[in-house]
Design brief:
There is one protein chain. The protein folds into two domains: about 150 residues, Response regulator (Rossmann fold, 3-Layer(aba) Sandwich), CATH 3.40.50.2300; about 60 residues, Orthogonal Bundle (Arc Repressor Mutant, subunit A), CATH 1.10.10. About 45% of the residues lie in helices and about 15% in strands. It has ten helices and eight strands. The strands form two sheets. It has a six-stranded mixed sheet with strand order 2-3-1-4-7-8, with helices on both faces. β7, α4 and β8 form a beta-alpha-beta unit. It starts with a strand and ends with a helix. About 10% of the residues have low confidence.
Length: about 220
């Protein structure tokens, strides 16, 4: 019998969902059953409804969430989920933050089909044996290892400093880099405006930058 994996695809663009399902309905003899959601709320409900979902492909820009907030909320409600960020951005900060928040893979929308196929195969490998073959294949093709799960990133002093920040600082940094004002951050985090200003000031000090615009430019 053909092995099957169930994957929840969360993206608000129908053309993207159709393309993914058409391109990756089968991987080296492994059948993929795609479950679709267009919003974070739909995704959370679908994950609760289907207890046997093997992995989640989660877009970062949905109608009811912004940036990595969707990933943060999904992991809080379903901490055992194998969530892969599905995004068009290759921003180093976003990739590092996604991993820190619990994502197990990063699938770039602009990646070559072969590269995406490798990432999906590694994502769906049996627990405890990353990269192990998922199903017999007559070609003897090699299933990639877990190294295919995230893009390779350079090690820099700036990101070493980011790694030392606490969870709340990281959340606010993410919102600052998304272009949110202090007022918008206050509303999103339920912190007072004064507390948000203090956090932003401490971020500038910790990362040794002169201004908010200087901070944003370092991650562009």
């Amino acid at each position: 019998m053909t092995a099957t994996r169930k994957v929840l695809l969360v993206d608000d663009h129908e053309l993207v969902r159709v393309g993914v399902k058409a391109a990756y309905g089968e991987l080296l003899g492994l059948a993929i059953e795609w479950i679709e959601a267009t919003t974070l709320a739909e995704a959370l409900a679908a994950y609760r409804e289907h207890a046997d979902i093997d992995a989640v492909l989660l877009d970062l820009n949905l109608a009811d969430c912004k940036g990595l907030q969707g990933l943060r909320i999904f992991m809080q409600q379903h901490p055992g989920a194998r969530v892969a960020v599905f995004s068009g951005t290759q921003d180093e900060f976003v990739i590092r933050q996604a991993r820190a928040l619990g994502a197990v893979a990063y699938v770039g929308k602009g990646a070559m089909t072969s590269q995406t196929r490798e990432t999906l195969l590694a994502l769906l490998a049996p627990p405890g044996s990353p990269g192990a073959p998922l199903a017999p294949h007559p070609s003897g093709a090699h299933v990639p290892t877990a190294q295919a799960l995230f893009p390779r990133l350079p090690r820099t002093a700036m990101y070493d400093r980011v790694a030392e920040l606490g969870p709340r600082h990281l959340e606010i940094l993410e919102l600052v880099l998304s272009g949110c004002t202090n007022q918008e951050i206050s509303q999103s985090t339920q912190l007072s405006l004064g507390t948000v200003k203090n956090y932003v000031s401490s971020l500038l000090l910790a990362l040794d930058v002169r201004s908010r615009s200087h901070l944003i430019s370092l991650f562009r």
